[in-house]
Structure formats: C-alpha cells, structure tokens
C-alpha cells in the first residue's frame, strides 16, 4: 500500500481517518503496519518518532529519500555491480563492479545474517526491523515521487529503482571494508597467477601500501571530549568535527530518532544509514575520528613448485579457490577470475606484493565479517555514562575504522580506539613477520605474516568479541576529568598529561611527531582552560567551543611566518623547481600583511597554503618526544628548499592576487551563487579543515572535503544544549529548499541549536509536522 502522508495542518484529523492515533505526540500504528511522525525543524532536519524500530526505520528511509534519493539510489547501483552500465565503463567503475559482483556471488552480506541474533554474531531483530522499515519507507517515497523527482542527478533515470533489504546489507558491508578490502579493490581485481597475461595495475592499492598509517583516504576528523575540569559548568561538553566529502555517498545527514522509552538520539549519520552514528542522548555525547590502525594483514604464501595457485601450509599443499565473475558494460561483458585462500583474497600490488612462481600475498580483512556495527551504534545511543559507553565498546567491538571521543553529564571524558584491529600482538609480530618486512611494519603498521605456518594465524584474545581481532585489553582507552582529543594522529597523546604507550604497532605509532593540526588542537584546549586564548574567561561553554573551532588559526603560520618574511625580504628573488626565476616582492608583502588565519577576510592565506603544500614547512630543530607539542617549530631558514617552495607557490598562483581575500577565491557553488568558505588545509596547521582543488587563475572553486557535521553539545542537568551545523546543507538536490541554507550559515560562522527536548523543538518557528506510514498485508 502507498505511504500515507499528512501535513501539519491535517495531521490529527488524518490520523483518525487512517486508523492511527497519537499518544503523547508519538507515532502509533494499529496492526503490523508502519507509522512514523516526522517533525521537520529549521534547515529541514527531521525529528522522527515511532513506536517501534521498524516504523522508525520507515520514517528515516522516507525522510532521507525526500532529501537525497539520488545519493541513495547511486549507492545501490554500486552495490548491485551496475556502475559501468549506468555511468560508463571507466576503469574505476569496472573495477568496482567486478569487486562488488564477486561479493554478491560469494554471498558476503548474506552470510552476515546467519547465526544468533544477539547483535554480535548476527544482527539483532531491532536492527533488522530498522533495515526493513528503511527499505519500505524509501520505496514508499519512490512510489509517491517517481515521476516528480526534481534532482537533476537522477531525474527520469531508470537506475532509480526500489531497493531491498539485501541491498542495504550490501551497502553496510561496503562501508565496513572501506579501509581494507575496499581500499585494495583494484589489487584484488588485478591479482592473476604468473603467465596469465596482462600487466597488473593497482594504483589505489599502491597508495594504501605507501600510506603512513591505516586511515582511509579522503576522510578525517577533529574531536574534543571536555570533562568537568575543562568546562565552565562542570558538565561534559563534546566537539564533533568530522572531515568528510562534501559530495557523494559519504555526506552526513542530520536527524533525531526516537522510540519512546527505548531510544532517543540526535545527531547525524552517513546518507543511507538508518541509525545515528555521531550524536548525543540526554546524558552522553560522542563523536568519531579516523583511526590510524590497519584493518587487514598480509600473508606471504609460499607457493607449491610448478603450481602458482597452490600454497604450502604446515608443509602440506592447499589449493586456492577460484571464482570467475562477469559484469556487463556498454561495450560488452567483462570477465575476471579471482583467487582466494583460507586467509582471504589474493592481492597484487606491483613492485611490493607481486605474484611470482615462488610467492603470492593474501589478506585477512577483519572488517569483512563485521556485522556488528548497526547494533553497536544502537547500543551506544542507549548508554547513560562514559562507563556504560566503554562497556558497549568492550563487548561489541564494532567500530570499523574510527576512534570514539565522548563526554557525559557527570563531566567524564573518554578516548578509545576500540575499533576492529587484526590481532597482531608484539610476540606474533616478532615471530611471524619475516625480516624483509619488519621495517614496513615498524614504519606503517602493515603486518606481513608468514602464511606457511598455522602458528602465524591471528588467533584469539580471550576478551575479544570475535576471533582474529585485538581484545579490549590490548586496545588504548583513557578516561579523564579534564579533556581528551584526537585529530587523526594515533592514540599516543589523546591527553599529553597521560601518554598511552606500549600498544601493538598495528594500532598506531608512539613517540613520533604529531601533525600541526593535532598540536593546534591540544593548544586550543589548554589555552581555553587557562584563559590565555584572547577570549573572555576560562574554561569551555558551547559558545566558546564554537569560537575556538572556527577561530580559523593557521598554526604553521604562527610558527614560521615571521622568519619566512625575513628571508623573503632579504632576498626577494628565488628559483622555482622548473628553473624559472621568480620575483618574490609581492609574496613577501602578502605574507607580512596576512593575519595568520583562514577567515574570509584573511589576505595571503592561500599563498601560505600553497607554500606548505609545496613542502616549504621545513624545520631546523628536531622532534623531541619529551616536548611533542612544541617541536619541531623553527623554520629551516638556511634550507634552499624553503625558498624554492615559496617560488613554486607564487608560480602556481599565477593570475590570482597573492593578497586576495580568502573568501573571494575559496568558494562553494550553490546554483548561480558562490558561497565564500572559511577554513584551510591541515598541511598549514589549520584545525578547521577545508580542502578544495585550485583552479588556475580562479582559486578554490569547489570544496572536496573538510568540516561537515559540526556539533558542540553540553550535557547539562536540564538536558543537552548547544550548537550544530551541516556545512554543505541537508540535501544534495539543487531544487530543495535545504540545498544551500546551512552552507550560507557556515560561511557566516553561524549555527543551528540543539533541539533534543520537546520544549527546544517547539520553539522552532519553522517546524512542520507530518506522518508517513502504510499497512502491511
């Protein structure tokens, strides 16, 4: 049956006519249908209430489809292995389709649904209901609006089709493996035994191997957990500041979800996900930052002589399994044969992990079996304290590739990297990583284990939720009354007063240089607590936290700008990398006049950014692990590469005034308008990260990724309060009223308020209420 939709004006009358009732403002359904109450607040944010999780999922699916149906539909094209047919047979689309079709044929997501429905071995009934409801709500909206879709990205496209529950589970599986199998997809597709023909090419897998840690490419985050010793009120305050893409399927979506008496959480989720992933309830708030841990391990296979698809295991041969996969493209079918071992798929990374007659390499992806995440986030939303939240993390071990930073009403702050990490302990690494690969493990956390011995299997920690991963006792966690913070470096300095050390290298590095963004993040907290940051008073309120986050400091400039100007003015010509002699006079003046920030009115900020990107931030003093927040800090003024980098920056900015206002050259398009955007690059030491691609002669004309969902929330005795914003706005549809409103708000450093309680919500002057639902037959 079609969805029932009621506007605010007719809501109550319509409910009675439909056989539905309102109980205390909540949704109630007769029989086994779906019914959800949607209250759209300012900026289009839905507050969704239902009496059960199936109806809650229905409301989420309907609301998300209203705002972002094209994004969700494209996700389903991906997990159905149809990108080549729908969007063209590019290399990336064909690779994606082959990888996804292999997962479909191997029933990767189907296997997730077997086993006890306890939320650890298999998804619970509550989560299954939520998925079922989301599918029904999305499909109901599609039936209602199929011929009325206004988003040009998918208007009239035949790939906008009804979805299934299995589509949703496949999409969730794909999210889980983003930093592991998904990141190595082209290396899995390229893997072929020697003599099979063709030349392996796997640039994405090569980038994964070359990366300094296991953080997935293209995403990042800042977060603060502020305890009672850091806040003006003594209650906990949280900053959520994920840095995610501004376009595509990894956009966040703000929403408030409630099943009375069972679940009540406000925050955000990635579009297409049915549960809040970053947010707060009445007593605790949490955010995530991208973790440095590796999510897979390599196994070096010793191959059977004369048979490159068999390997030795404890002296006995084992045959690889092969699976031939075919996908359709506009130019005809494409077929590939994949090879798997009992460890996992064979992967080729040319020049590093080649498949020869003697050896091949397979991976174990510990997130490929992580069917626990949706239940884990559901349980997080029910926690009432940092202690309860930590117990959820310990028991469920579900976070695929992120840390947790949290704060509660009693003023406790938590940092934990209790993500899913392969069980590579110090003893296993010492005994099972062959000597040629020890340096790789030390430098980047990538473990290459001896795949010929059963003694080198991952094994099981006694406290681990499932085999093959590190248990809570081997994972870093810290509870503080002052603060914890993370800006995508490892766990080591979540609080500098209590460095965390001695953990397996696969999780992250210790006693190594921190990024300028990490250092600034800690300095900002310490200076606010001490009252030395130029703002009035001491300690944090949500307002002061907003001011600090969007203070738009460029810490790299604070450290070196004066010395850079001095050497620039002393010798105002330099030679660029291409041999060109560059006049630096205008650059010297622009840098001298720069206010050391990345505000809209900041002049010369882009020049410093390009200088940093060109490798100009070279320091004369060494890193000192005893002073990790202040070293290194002195510009290497005698290093000729510093002046070369400045010359390169000037050359790159040809046609753009070196003293231009940042707001004039860093913008985000919304229709015919260009919205000025503040913020900048982490390479320049900016906390409020914004990344755009430089368009020659124009500037940064489109934001790629950076600050996205930003929330500053205090867990006060009278309920949560504070500020929040979705920088790129709620809808990707240019014809939506919620396409640009929060983006303009972000440009002005404005905010929307927390609207968790009924009282807070009722004060919203733009509130519109309607109900969606249908009967099931």
From TrEMBL:
Key words of the record: Hydrolase, Signal, Zymogen
Gene Ontology molecular function, alphabetical: hydrolase activity, acting on carbon-nitrogen (but not peptide) bonds, in linear amides
Gene3D superfamilies (UniProt xref): 1.10.1400.10, 2.30.120.10, Glutamine Phosphoribosylpyrophosphate, subunit 1, domain 1, Penicillin Amidohydrolase, domain 1
Family: Belongs to the peptidase S45 family.
Lineage of origin: Bacteria, Bacillati, Actinomycetota, Actinomycetes, Micromonosporales
Full protein name: Acyl-homoserine-lactone acylase
Membrane-spanning parts: none
One Gene Ontology term from the biological process aspect of the record: antibiotic biosynthetic process
């Amino acid at each position: 049956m079609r969805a029932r939709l009621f506007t605010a004006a007719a809501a109550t009358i319509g409910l009675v006519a439909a056989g539905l009732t309102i109980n205390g403002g909540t949704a109630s359904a007769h029989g086994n249908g779906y019914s959800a109450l949607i209250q759209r607040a300012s900026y289009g944010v839905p507050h969704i209430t239902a009496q059960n999780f199936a109806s809650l999922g229905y409301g989420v699916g309907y609301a998300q489809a209203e705002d972002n149906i094209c994004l969700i539909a494209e996700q389903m094209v991906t997990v159905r292995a149809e990108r080549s047919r729908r969007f063209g047979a590019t290399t990336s689309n064909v690779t994606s389709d082959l990888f996804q079709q292999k997962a479909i044929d191997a029933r990767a997501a189907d296997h997730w649904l077997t086993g006890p429905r306890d939320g650890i071995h298999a998804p619970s009934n509550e989560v299954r209901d939520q998925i079922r409801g989301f599918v029904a709500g999305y499909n109901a909206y599609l039936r209602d609006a199929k011929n009325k879709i206004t988003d040009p990205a998918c208007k009239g496209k035949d790939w906008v089709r009804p979805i299934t529950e299995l589509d949703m589970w496949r999409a969730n599986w794909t999210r889980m493996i983003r930093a592991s199998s998904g990141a190595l997809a082209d290396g899995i597709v390229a893997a072929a035994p020697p003599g099979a023909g063709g030349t392996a090419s796997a640039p994405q897998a090569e980038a994964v191997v070359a990366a300094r840690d296991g953080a997935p490419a293209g995403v990042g985050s800042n977060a603060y957990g502020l305890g009672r010793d850091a806040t003006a009120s003594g209650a906990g305050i949280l900053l959520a500041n994920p840095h995610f893409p501004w376009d595509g399927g990894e956009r966040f979506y703000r929403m408030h979800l409630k099943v009375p008496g069972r679940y009540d959480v406000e925050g955000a989720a990635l579009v297409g996900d049915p549960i809040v992933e970053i947010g707060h309830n009445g007593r605790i708030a949490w955010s995530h930052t991208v973790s440095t841990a590796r999510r897979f391990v390599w196994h070096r296979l010793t191959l059977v002589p004369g048979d490159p698809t068999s390997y030795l295991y404890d002296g006995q041969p084992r045959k690889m399994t092969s699976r031939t996969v075919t996908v359709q493209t506009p130019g005809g079918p494409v077929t590939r044969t994949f090879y798997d071992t009992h460890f996992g798929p064979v992967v080729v990374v040319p020049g590093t992990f080649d498949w020869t007659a003697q050896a091949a390499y397979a991976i174990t992806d510990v997130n490929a079996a992580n069917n626990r995440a949706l239940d884990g986030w559901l349980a997080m939303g029910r926690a009432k304290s940092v202690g309860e939240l930590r117990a959820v993390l310990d028991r469920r071990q579900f976070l695929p590739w992120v840390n947790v930073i949290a704060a509660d009403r009693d003023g406790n702050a938590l940092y934990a990297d209790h993500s899913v990490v392969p069980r590579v302990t110090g003893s296993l690494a010492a005994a099972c990583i062959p000597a040629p690969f020890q340096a790789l493990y030390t430098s980047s956390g990538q473990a290459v284990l001896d795949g010929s011995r059963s003694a080198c299997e991952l094994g099981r920690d006694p406290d681990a939720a499932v085999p093959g991963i590190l248990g809570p006792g081997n994972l870093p966690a810290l509870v503080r009354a002052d603060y914890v913070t993370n800006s995508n470096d490892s766990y080591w300095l979540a609080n500098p007063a209590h460095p965390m050390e001695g953990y397996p290298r696969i999780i992250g590095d210790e006693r190594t240089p921190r990024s300028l963004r990490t250092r600034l993040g800690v300095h900002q907290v310490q200076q606010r607590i001490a009252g030395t940051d130029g703002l009035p008073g001491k300690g944090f309120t949500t307002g002061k936290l907003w001011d600090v986050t969007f203070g738009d400091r460029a810490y790299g400039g604070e450290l070196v700008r004066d010395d850079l100007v001095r050497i620039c003015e002393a010798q105002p010509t330099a030679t660029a990398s291409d041999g060109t002699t560059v006049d630096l006079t205008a650059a010297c003046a622009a840098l001298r006049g720069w206010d050391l920030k990345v505000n809209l009115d900041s002049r010369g900020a882009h020049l410093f950014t390009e200088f940093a990107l060109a490798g100009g931030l070279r320091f004369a003093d060494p890193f000192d692990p005893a002073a990790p927040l202040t070293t290194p800090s002195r510009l290497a003024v005698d290093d000729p590469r510093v002046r070369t980098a400045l010359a390169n920056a000037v050359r790159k900015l040809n046609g753009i005034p070196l003293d231009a206002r940042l707001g004039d050259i860093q913008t985000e398009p919304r229709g015919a308008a260009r919205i000025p955007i503040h913020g900048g690059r982490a390479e320049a030491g900016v906390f409020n990260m914004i990344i755009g691609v430089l368009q020659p002669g124009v500037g940064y004309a489109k934001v790629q990724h950076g600050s996205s969902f930003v929330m500053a929330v205090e867990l006060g005795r009278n309920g949560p309060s504070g500020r929040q914003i979705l920088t790129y706005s709620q809808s990707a549809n240019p014809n939506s009223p919620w396409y640009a409103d929060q983006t303009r708000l972000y440009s002005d450093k404005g905010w929307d308020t927390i609207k968790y309680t009924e009282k807070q919500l009722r004060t919203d002057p733009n509130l519109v209420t309607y109900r969606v639902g249908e009967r099931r037959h």
